[in-house]
């Protein structure tokens, strides 16, 4: 089968190659999915799990990609809950070969049914961004109606989901980003927008929840804005700072099928819009996935157009 592998995680597009690889086999509780579309997070080639398995053994050259939408073609021993021919979507294991391939082996517990009226490109754009936003706001941030959320990178793949879900939950949403992101962030539902390059972050006043996708100095300055009892949620790695009188939480998104069902239902009934930037074929994926290219939304690779 065709697959995008990474040979050098630090080399950007030059470290990625389209290769022929053996088709995966289904282990206990796995399904094999014929991948129709795969989402991609631009930092993925450099993640430790991309080069190592769970025992720490080198697993390169690894197949990239962890978001998928596709059709189940085989069940492993003991697999329940899904059937051959079923449309599914979700996140595959960080430490195993990924979804930028014609087939992938995934534990069935990481997948949810993809409704027939949601196309594969949309399905593949939702799992990481949608679940990250959901888990950051609901599971870790314990957001309540009436609170104020500072949503960094509000025009990005995660940020547009954060903005919409926070607003649906009854929060006041202050988005941030570059000057060019203002209209998009407001269009996705932010009540206000701060251009981090030209405006003072401190002008937003106190907030209850910071959703950090940037880290560093922006994270530190944001933590100082959190009112007593509030929360800093970051997805950029271990929190480097914490609010004076509040919680700092960092997390890596998990594939939770019940939450995927909630997210895709919102897309179907119009409460949630996905944010797809470029869509490219597997043959053109290396160019499309170049981590140095500025993105305006989620890159999705259409594996089986
Ligand atoms: N822990 C987890 O589970 C998890 C899950 C998903 C994503 N992530 C991480 O979260 C980050 C965001 O992911 P994403 O998919 O949402 O990326 P994205 O689509 O590129 O969105 C990030 C947005 O933030 C903006 N931004 C970044 N730094 C900025 C700065 N200093 N000033 C102003 N705007 C800035 C970006 O603008 P520019 O492009 O102009 O910089 C972009 O609009 C990535 O680092 C990703 O690896 C972590």
TrEMBL record:
Q: Which domain of life is it from?
A: Bacteria
Annotated InterPro entries: ADH-like_C, ADH-like_N, ER, GroES-like_sf, NAD(P)-bd_dom_sf, YIM1/Zinc_Alcohol_DH_Fams
Q: Membrane spanning segments where?
A: none
Q: Identify the residues that the record assigns to the Enoyl reductase (ER) domain, covering every copy.
A: 12-301
Coiled-coil parts of chain: none
Q: Which Gene3D superfamilies match?
A: Medium-chain alcohol dehydrogenases, catalytic domain, NAD(P)-binding Rossmann-like Domain
What PANTHER family does this protein map onto? ALCOHOL DEHYDROGENASE RELATED, RETICULON-4-INTERACTING PROTEIN 1, MITOCHONDRIAL
Which protein, by its recorded name, is this? NADPH:quinone reductase
């Amino acid at each position: 089968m065709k697959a995008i592998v990474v040979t050098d995680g630090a080399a950007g597009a030059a470290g990625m190659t389209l290769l022929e690889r053996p088709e995966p086999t289904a282990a206990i509780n796995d399904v094999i999915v014929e991948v129709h579309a795969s989402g991609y997070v631009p930092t993925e080639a450099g993640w430790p799990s991309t080069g190592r398995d769970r025992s720490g053994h080198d697993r390169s050259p690894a197949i990239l990609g962890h978001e998928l939408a596709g059709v189940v073609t085989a069940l492993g021993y003991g697999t329940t809950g899904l059937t051959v021919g079923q449309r599914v979507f979700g996140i595959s294991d960080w430490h195993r070969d990924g979804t930028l391939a014609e087939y992938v082996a995934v534990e069935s517990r990481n997948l949810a049914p993809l409704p027939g009226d949601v196309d594969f490109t949309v399905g593949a754009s939702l799992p990481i961004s949608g679940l990250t936003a959901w888990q950051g706001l609901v599971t870790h941030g314990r957001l309540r109606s009436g609170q104020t959320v500072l949503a960094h990178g509000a025009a990005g793949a995660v940020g547009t989901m954060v903005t919409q879900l926070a607003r649906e939950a009854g929060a006041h949403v202050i988005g941030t980003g570059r000057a060019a992101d203002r209209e998009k962030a407001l269009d996705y539902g932010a009540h206000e927008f701060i251009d981090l390059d030209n405006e003072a972050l401190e002008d937003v006043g106190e907030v209850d929840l910071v959703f950090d996708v940037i880290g560093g100095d922006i994270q530190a300055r944001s933590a100082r804005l959190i009112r007593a009892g509030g929360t800093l949620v970051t997805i950029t790695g271990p929190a480097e700072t914490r609010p004076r009188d509040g919680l700092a939480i960092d997390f890596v998104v998990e594939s939770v099928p019940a939450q995927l069902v909630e997210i895709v239902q919102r897309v179907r009934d119009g409460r949630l819009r996905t944010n797809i930037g470029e869509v490219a074929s597997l043959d053109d994926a290396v160019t499309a996935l170049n981590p140095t290219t500025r993105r305006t939304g989620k890159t999705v690779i259409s594996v089986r157009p």
